[in-house]
Amino acid sequence: MRVLNYRKYKLFAEGLSKEAGTILLNHLGKIKKISYKSKIDLVTDVDTKCERLILKRIKDVFSEHEIISEEAGTVGSNSSDYQWLIDPLDGTTNYAHSFGFFCVSIALLYKGEVIVGVVYDPLRDELFSASKDKGSYLNGKRISVSSIKSLKRSLLATGFPYSLGKLLQRNMDNFKRFILKSQAVRRAGSAALDLCYVAAGRFDGFWELGLHPWDTAAGVLIVQEAGGKVTTFNNKQFNPFLKEIVATNGSLHNKIIKVLR
Predict the structure, then answer these.
(1) How does DSSP classify residue 68?
(2) How far apart are the C-alpha atoms of 238 and 70, rounded to whole Å?
(3) Is 1 a member of any domain?
(4) What is the pLDDT of residues 78-101, one digit of tens each?
(5) Cβ contacts of 46 within 8 Å, gap of 6 or more
(6) pTM reported for the whole predicted model
(7) Which residue of 125, 146, 157, 226 has the fewest C-beta atoms within 10 A of its own C-beta?
(8) What is the span of the domain harbouring residue 251?
(9) Shortest CA distance to 94 belongs to which of 173, 29, 169?
(10) Which residue among 90, 113, 142 closes a domain?
(11) 226 shares its domain with 204
């Protein structure tokens, strides 16, 4: 049986995320070009600059691997057992407005299973990372989810889809319900960081609709390795290619599922 070298991939992803994060910091407040993929979904020249760096590094070191990135789409061999899921800038709208909640997210899948997840917040110099069955870490120190058991005492997080249709209305309804049932709900604008905050015990739970695999893959592993639970709204097994997610400290999971519609 082949034993995967998770550590090698994790160290590579950590270094790469920091390299891309340096680009984000150096260009913060200095964006030269903003384009719109839809009415409210934007991309900056800094997104593409970071993406080019990440793609080049991965292709140089792991030329046989497949890469799926937010802006470039699918790159490389689709027959590879290894698949990188890349978001060079999660929280682009925040970044474009110099609002300090954005990150680089990098995950590696092996035969469809996430084995490495790295999320780097360059503004706070916080590196969240995990590899399968090895725990989750923040700047090298082990982290774990919160112990909150009461929904009324919980701090939750969510996000809203870029589409302005049924998904938006559905989550507005959920948002209203949780405002009444929890201590507070935050909507900060980066799903990857929201998931890491659940892993670190800063949030007690997170839910969202309409996400993409590069938004969630790294953060989901970090939550799971920190002792949390991640499923669909129907409490079914989650994978990054699904469009809905619930991530919690575990103790609150069924209570949050019960509120969601």
Answers:
(1) E
(2) 20
(3) no
(4) 789 999 999 999 999 999 999 999
(5) 23, 24, 27, 31, 89, 95
(6) 0.94
(7) 125
(8) 151-259
(9) 29
(10) 142
(11) yes
